[in-house]
Every structure is written in C-alpha cells, then in structure tokens.
Write a structure and sequence with these properties.
This protein is of the alpha/beta class. Helices cover about 40% and strands about 20% of the residues. Strands 7-6-5-4-3-2-1-8 form an eight-stranded parallel β-sheet. The radius of gyration is 17 Å and the shape is globular. The protein binds pyridoxal-5'-phosphate.
Length: about 230
C-alpha cells in the first residue's frame, strides 16, 4: 500500500478506537515517525496531508533537513534519546523534544532555545517499565521531581506532558497497564498544579499498539512502520 493509503487507514483506526473509548478523535494527533526514511518517502506523507513528524537522531535529521525545506508546514519533533552535546543542534532543528528525561538535558536545551530566542515544546519521557536499557525518567524518582520543580526557571521550554515507550511485546494488550500507569502519573502531576507545567499531552502508542494507547488516553500516537513499511536499519 502507498504511504497515503496507510495514513488514511491509520486515521480510520484512530477514529474507531477513540469512539470505542468514548473520546473525540480530534483529541488524538497522528505523528509519522520518519526515522530512517528518505526525504522522498517523507514527501509522500506530507503530500497526503501529514504535518506532524518524529525523528530520533539529530545527525540523521540534520543530513536530510535540506531536502525537506519545501515541507513548510511540517512540524518536527525529536523523540529519541538525546545526549547533552546535541542540545544546540536540536533546538535549532526541532520544534519540540518529546524525550526529555533529566534536568541536565533540560537545562542544556533551555539554554540553547533561549540563545535562539525560541521556545521548545517538551514532553518528559518516563521509563514506565523500569527497564535497564531504556531511557526515560523513573516514575517517583528524585530526578523526575527535580525536573518538574525546575520548570518555572526553564523559560525556553514549555512543558506539555509525558511520553513513554513501554516494554516491547508482540501483544498490544500487554502494553495496557503501562499506558494506564503513564496516564495516572500524568493525572497525579496535573493535580499538583505545579508552576510552569501543563500536563495535557500523553504521547504513547506505536504501530502495533496505538489503539490500546488511545483507549488509555493517548493524545499522540507515534507511528512509523505502519505508515512507511518495515525499516531496513534501526
Ligand atoms: C521508532 C519509534 C516509534 C515508531 O515505531 P513503529 O513501531 O515503527 O511504529 C515510536 N516512538 C519512538 C520513540 C520510536 O523510536
């Protein structure tokens, strides 16, 4: 199937999942995860009306960015693990960083954004499964608390919510408790009404489990494979 047909079919499934959950489909954004995809494929998605894109490597995106200049209305989000030495380039190339997981990284991004007189939208990435090898702040950790409490002074960033990648499973339903946990954490943080923090966004759900994520409250599903096909490299 073409990229356009895949996007149309995913949008149908988003609408159906939202209705099942008694939610309004407009509350759920579809992000096309275009990592490893060449500019031509990304252009096909754009031509089909797709505007929100996620990339996971700064260098890869920097290399193809020139070829994407014509996609004026595209909105680029960084969704991958970031090293602090990439903060300046990230603030230059991306509208938002959905994978902020430490105060140290937030401070670097904040400084870089301010230098450019920009505001970066950010999501805090949470390691809901407590997996060793995964990035993300642990729920209930000192690190997460520090990050949240620092928000008022990080004037180059706008905190909008939480993001997660749950432990991998072939069965979408296995992800449900993790999605629910992220929603509960979001609700708990929102209830504290912390200064400088909005908590309306929940970025969760990928190609194989986005419908379950929508049932659990996702406001942004990040879909790569189901739009562009299998990736040849990770
Ligand atoms: C690659 C990636 C996705 C998309 O995964 P698919 O299974 O291809 O839909 C979503 N989120 C993050 C953080 C990713 O790195």
């Amino acid at each position: 199937m073409s990229v356009a047909a895949n996007i149309a079919s995913i949008q149908e499934r988003i609408i159906a999942a939202a209705r099942r959950a008694g939610r309004r489909p407009e509350e759920i954004a579809l992000m096309a995860v275009s990592k490893t995809q060449p500019p031509e494929r990304i252009g096909e998605a754009y031509a089909a009306g797709q505007r929100l894109f996620g990339e996971n490597r700064v260098q890869e995106f920097a290399a193809k960015n020139n070829a994407l200049q014509d996609l004026h209305a595209a909105e680029w989000h960084m969704i991958g693990h970031l090293q602090t030495n990439k903060a300046a380039k990230t603030a230059e190339l991306f509208r938002a960083v959905d994978s902020v997981d430490s105060l140290k990284l937030a401070e670097k991004l904040d400084a870089a954004a301010r230098k450019l007189s920009r505001k970066l939208d950010v999501l805090v990435e949470i390691n809901v499964g407590g997996e060793e090898a995964k990035s993300g702040a642990a729920p209930d950790s000192q690190g997460l608390e520090e990050l949240l409490l620092a928000a008022p002074r990080l004037e180059g960033m706008v905190f909008r919510g939480l993001m997660t990648v749950p432990p991998f499973s072939d069965h979408a339903q296995d992800a449900r408790p993790y999605f629910r946990k992220l929603r509960e954490l979001r609700d708990a943080i929102a209830a504290r009404k912390l200064s400088g923090i909005a908590m309306e966004q929940l970025s969760m759900g990928m190609s194989h489990d986005f419908e379950v994520a929508i049932e659990e409250g996702s406001t942004c599903v990040r879909v790569g494979t189901a739009i562009f096909g299998e990736r040849t490299k990770a």
